[in-house]
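Final paragraph of the annual report: two paired records, presented back to back.
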Amino acid sequence: MSRKVLITGANGMLASDLIPLLQDSDFQVYPYTRKELDISNPDSVDEAMDQCQPDVLINCAAYTQVDKCETETEKAFQVNRDALAHLVKGCRRYDTLLVHISTDYVFDGRQKTPYHEGDPTHPLSVYGQSKLEGEQTIVDSYDSHLILRASWLYGILGHSFVKTIIRIATEREALNIVNDQFGSPTHTINLSKAIIHLLERNAKGLYHYSDDGICSWYDFACEIIEEMKSKGFPLAVKEVNAIATSEYPLPAVRPQYSLLSKEKYKGTTGLALPHWKDGLKDFFNRYKH
């Protein structure tokens, strides 16, 4: 019998790609938007859990506006940490596997080799700290969990670096992009597939997932613009300039290097990883402009 899966944040960037892929993989999916299920409200969580009594709950709801988290600290912790206690309580009642999406921002980026799941965490931002404490809330209180840390997410819906570059490359002749922060862009389609692969193998615990390869934000922007050219976008941009992080200060500090090791994921699934450039090509094959 197919497993019942409750999805929070169902109209968000990740869930919008995950839901159809779960349905294609023979899961019974119960999607809840933020209006239908407020994870920071324990009564709302209990009501949804009682309605569908899921085998799996995948939490795609989060407060992800990294810079706003620096000023909206209470809201960041309410959604990214405190709400996890309500989800744990609901999952415990029905012996539900809790799947939670976390972030590379739990690290400080001072390493020069890919971060493994057991490496020390040291967030530099309110967002990173709130996500780390959300992880800890789950780990400390509920064994039946699967936590995936992902990096540099982008998808068709929602806000992302890719969508920002698409917009400004059609508006401006010159772009200044940071060239001293490194990581792995990850298409939400590929993260969705990774979640399903782990569910199919009954995986539990903490995993890292991102698309393969490494680049800077500058490299990523250049590749986005090349894809836009190949798809016939009306480009205004004529030059892309590499700049240092210090030349583009933002409220939240980003990790300088946040490449995630996927060895544990590959060992569990036996699967090769799609390269981030292939993920970007796939995105542009789906994106309508």
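The closing record of the year follows.
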Amino acid sequence: MAAAGISAIVVCFNEEDNIRDCLESLRWVDEIVVVDSYSTDRTVEICREYTDRIIQRPWAGYRDQKAFAHSQATKGWVFLVDADERVPAELRAEVRNALARDGARYAAFSVPRLVHYLGRWWWRGGWYPDYDIRIFRRDLATWGGTDPHEKILVRGKVRRLKNPLHHYSYRDISDHVDRINHFTTVSVKELKLDGKRWRALDNLARPAVRFLRSYLWKRGFVEGFPGFFVALTAAVYVFLKYAKLREWELGPASERARDRG
């Protein structure tokens, strides 16, 4: 392991079904920092079995909450892991080796994510490899982007790792649909902040392109009906995002003013 040590940071809220497996997969790091948004289930109780670095803080958005967790880490390297993710043994070994060999040469490492959903691992359909910076030098990283597409910005070189982080993204179809509704609402706020305006072409063409990308180009059709379902829900996500933008534009001026406030 790198001499500088590793802090794992986990942001969570009401994750009692996931948090134990997540933290169990992080027992090997030097420090686990949990930032909890005042969970009302057993999340914090379970976290106490793994770390005493538990900080409760009101939800401030994906970017700001993770940036705060980053600020609480004390080791030289930070490993960001979501509550519904697991670090398998192969990735753990690769991280250790990468930091020992290349820790002085790189500011961060990006990791592929492999989704488990509908009883299978999604190597096809557009969700893999989904590379994302997850391991970074604490003093060389800052946060950018807007919710829900926050991103880690680093000063220095980034290297890709091979072994994936396991992502248990949805409990079931109902959870999937609920998250689509939630994240499209958050995404509309991002579009508005960027000054985007609704266009019929976006609302009609972009969902079709997303479906074809997932189902044909990324070979989701190989997965049978689940592949069709995932491609269709990806298209629905895009359609709802732009439909909600149009809804906002057509709303009363007072509502738009309140939203800006």
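The chain has two domains: 6-167, 173-260. This concludes the annual technical report; the extension proposal builds directly on these records.
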